[in-house]
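Need tokens for this chain, all 422 residues.
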Amino acid sequence: MQESLPVAAASPLSRRTRQARAVWGSNVVTIGGDAPVRIQSMTNTDTQEAVATAIQVKELALAGSELVRITVNTPEAAAQVPYIREQLDRMGIDVPLVGDFHYNGHRLLTEFPDCAQALSKYRINPGNVGKGEKRDRQFAQMIEAAMRWDKCVRIGVNWGSLDQELLAQMMDENSRRADPWDAKAVMYEALVTSAIESARQAESLGMDGSQIILSCKVSGVQDLVSVYRELARRCDYALHLGLTEAGMGTKGTVASSVAMGLLLQEGIGDTIRVSLTPQPGEPRTQEVVIAAEILQSLGLRSFVPSVTACPGCGRTTSTTFQELAKQIDDHLRSSMPVWRAKYPGVETMKLAVMGCIVNGPGESKHADIGISLPGTGEAPAAPVFIDGQKAMTLRGDNIARDFQRIVEEYIEKRFGHVADHA
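Here are the structure tokens for all 422 residues:
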């Protein structure tokens, strides 16, 4: 019998890219290189409404977004950007702002220098900067503004607004091949070519290549994987990752998670954004929560203590464990803005809230702190495990409240001394 070998542990591959810096005040957000994969989001407010936009930026930043993109599409919007930045600074929110420019970015960055300075990064779409000779001139104006104010840029190609002149040229070249590629392959090539050639053009204008981030946004999972694998193979620029128009609810969440999970596992992607269409009444911050969950699930980063909870079955007819799991998870997330500063390392904590005796004690022992609630027909007692050992048993009508108190005491005991000695 052949001797077995240890099962290899799966982990995301590493990939070293150039490192960009998005800066506001003392907050320097590094992208690429040895930096952690960053989370981005985008407001859906009218940028002309400075207060409403600043409030949403604050919400996104507190939820964990490390850069926030805002639409800068009109002179009126550009004029409000400095006031948005001012409002954020007054609120103590130093998250870098990214200006999203299409069609008229060259003019807005030139005519509104206060806007150009208030932003920390510019998003440039090569397909929307002009045609013919205008394209090169207007693209150069945006790059020159970035260099003047020492800003990084994302050259973001999108297959819904791809440079039509480039695509037509590549289609013509393809038609002359002895064995023509299919249309999708030409589209992939056009996306990658547009991004890399635009980056090289920016460098030829004098821009530091490390200050350039690339993206090639598509809306299909397999399309995104195909394009980014090739993009990563051909260049070492930092890469912004995400599906465009991913959708809403379950569809958008699953598609984004699958696509980005596949690529991040291969070491592709330096910053991500989940482009989730909010369901009616759903907060914009949900896209930040999902992005954080993707990175935490892959073991790339830790943002909030994880809660393991069973899905429930015929043994768990009571909803107590479901309610407790949600209560604990909601409490951890709402407390993190304070806990992150007060209890360094708390985001790595693991909790378990289980619903019956089958897996409950075992999962609870694997967690830092866990509770195994009684299932159908089991004794009305809930053993609590701390650091792998049974610590106590809760009974009565206040199990949920008692367990939350135990969790908070554990956090204070384990992580509070870290802050005291920092």
